[in-house]
Queue: 2 jobs
Job 1
Amino acid sequence: MLIPELIRKKREGFSLSENEIKCFVDGAGKGTWPDYQLSAMLMAIFFEGMTTRETSNLTHHMASSGKILSWPDLPGPAIDKHSTGGVGDKTSIILGPLAAACGVFVPMISGRGLGHTGGTLDKLESIPGFNVRLNLDSFEKILRTLGIAMIGQTTEIAPADRILYSLRDVTATVESIPLITASILSKKIAEGIQGLIMDVKTGMGAFMPEVAKARKLAKSIVNTARKSGIHCQAIITNMDSPLGYKIGNALEIQECIEILKGNGPEDTRELSINLAAKMVQMGGIKPDLNEATRLVRDKLANGEGLAKFSALIQAQGGDPRVIDNPNMLEVSTQTFEIKALESGWLNAIDASKLGWAACHLGAGRDKAEASVDAGVGIILHRKPSCRVTKGDIIMELRHRNGKGLEKASELCQHSLAIDEKPRSEIQLILEEII
Ligand code: URA
């Protein structure tokens, strides 16, 4: 079939055969389809969806577009965690070192910013010298020595996802269950892990704002992973408001360091501990979840998690002095304050609006080839739910010479829900899919 015929077939709502899916994935991975045809197919999949069989085939061929690693002789379990994408969600950078300090091996392959959500790779690259483009030999050496290494999709690992991910980011084709499932699992299958803990986000700042759709996404990921031989559990967590107080690449690394030092915001710390404990349990290091949680808390309290992060930074070419001097992470000193326009209860701060605001400031991309500004973002001074008085500073924007500031400040101002009465509190962890 010609490429336009394949695109038309999906656009008309028909299922694609395994060979047709392979042809599309090869088109991305081997560069035989131009970006405009890949993007058109992504949009057709976005609107028409995929069957379970198509999603499995897409996942399998995206994983097989590069090497699939395996770790038969690692002296511990290879387990990873991934999130479906959030705002201020920096948990991978906290829980990875914590889980590794407990004896889990974490060969983490992450993504860049996607849509309005931040990406682990962009955050790590804000650390001076940190290299997320290791070759496979270095990746393996660091993993074996430290128990953790963190890289991105490469021309060797999940190359089809590298291309499709960057196209989805800038063509408004992110919020699709089959595309998210295949994107995440292609990287995870390529990692050669035994187990995966998924954090599936729901709420205003998530790709699946309604819980029912988030549940569908969680089930799609868990079932597709299991078909590929990966033990997978998911939790559904609330992303109405951003996680933590800091949004933006360097700002989020600062917050990760604060948390690994035993301080920082409770929501991000507790979610990181919860997810790390599930990895420890899944890896069989502590089969009882309470004991696994205790072990993770010990590693946080005794500084082993922080030491592991420092060693990881050094091993991947970064400057570990950022740990003692987080001001080495360049953050713009140009600020703009967002104040409460009325008094009342600050019941919500719409995470989606803040995510887009951060993108306008330069923390995310609007074109595939664009670079991000690591030093811009948003610092929250207040979080829901609390009482505020007209004129209180709710957040400050860190901008670069006013770039994107007008739109960003408008979005941030509109993100605030201030009401007369407090809303009942929403739990962070909503459901578990085991
Ligand atoms: N994370 C990914 O790796 N891919 C997605 O599509 C969403 C989140």
Note: The chain has a mean pLDDT of 97.
Job 2
Amino acid sequence: MTITPVRITETPEWKALAEHQRSLAGRHLRELFDADPARGETMTVDAADLHLDYSKNRLTPETVQFLVAVAERAGLRERIDAMFAGEHINVTEDRAVLHVALRAPEGTRITVDGHDVVPDVHGILAKMRDFSRRVRSGDWLGHTGRRIRAVVNIGIGGSDLGPKMAYEALKDRTDRSIVFRFVSNVDGSDIWEATCDLDPAETLFVVSSKTFTTSETIANATTAREWLLAGLGDPAAVARHFVAVSTNAEKVQEFGIDLGSMFGFWDWVGGRYSYDSAIGLSLMIAIGPEAFGEMLGGFRAIDEHFRDTPFERNLPALMGLIGVWYYDLWGAETQAVLPYDHYLSWFPDYLQQLEMESNGKSVTLSGEPVELPTGPVVWGTPGTNGQHAYYQLLHQGTRLVPADFIGFLRPHHRVGAHHDMLMANFLAQTEALAFGKTAEEVEAEGVPPAQVPHRTFSGNHPTNTLLAPALTPRVLGELVAAYEHRVLTQGVIWGIDSFDQWGVELGKALAQRIVPELTAEAAPELHHDSSTNALIRRYRAARVG
Ligand code: F6P
């Protein structure tokens, strides 16, 4: 498929948006709220269980019209339709992009090159459900006849961050009689820590890798197999203690895992869009097939909303467009994501891959340099920890940092008054960021004049507030789908391929070249730059062989 991206900055729609931005540049959020006291109610949008309040942003209803015009001009509607139709919108890899098919209900028809993929999706889901139930009920036994008490997911990138983030997010729904661990780093400390207190006779490894060639994952899986065999002493044990999740049956077999224990998926699922595929197997074992199904329902609700709702009221599209507004017209370089739910502690890390691997691109679909700054640096930690660490910079620093605040009406646990305190902080922070505290207000408190500048808060710091009833499996699915579609929205405006990741290749290739240079008996001839050569020699001199 050839997609010729629109040179968006040359369009009248972009020029009108830029002109409009200049007219708003001097206006403070205080003024915007004074001019339109209802904006806290009107500048909101609901999608399934998600409520987005975008009123505390440097924009007016007119801004939304300008942004929507840009989205239409960039071809967002056509690209959404092409994605849902299974067209090869991942142009550089010539692949369809169909994570939406992973949550399509049975009976829907979504074709990739003429083949309906929905029955395949449901076939694998059925196999996952059956296996998860067997492990959870104790029907699937280890080689020596013992129950599985530990599940270790081995994967990296999307094959790790998704299931790990979702496992942590839904921890209160997990089976506490089984320990779950996630190993990703090739640093041996990771697999060591994950296995050092486990019993091989009760441990199941889920080796998750789309390609089954990722060196970190294969190294960890190989070490895990050695650990298992050292404990159980019989190569036949692998069959009861290893399953694989992959698109690459040949490599799975080569590793020694039976195809009956392989859970497949497809090249049209990107790694960072994959945890609702079989990559979520360890998650399904943890939360059970019913909760996994509820989560898929949440994804689906937002997919349908994104596909069918006009952009003015389309939650993921608006989030995407508001991001473009700040990164490209106000010079913001980062995006903070601040969940006020401890269980979402891995959500910012998960979004880092989703957003930065997708939209960290500098050429367009047709290979031209991009016209605008693309994906921001995404970062964050759960509130209220961040408040006592880096919020100082958000309130009084010199940088513009748009922030998404994510909160929930109901807590997981009734632990004293904690939830009221948490949510009071959640609400206070966006209020303080938006409205600040003027020098006059500070003076009126009797603060000594010399201290007034230090204790003044300029305000005017933009935030989105995302509120949902509770962090249930369904709501998690909704949240993730919203961010997935935010990524597509922005990628279309920038005219880039949000679904490839060529930028990870160079480092991988160089590492493969360097491994033998570190391990060779005789000092190798080195042909790197002088810095890399010297560092290799220093490592070799101290290497523990
Ligand atoms: O190197 C980046 C990447 O390809 C990610 O896109 C992917 O999620 C990760 O590596 C893991 O890949 P795999 O699932 O094939 O092991």
Note: The pocket of 6-O-phosphono-beta-D-fructofuranose is lined by residues 156-159, 209-211, 214, 217, 271-272, 357, 501, 504 (CB under 6 Å).
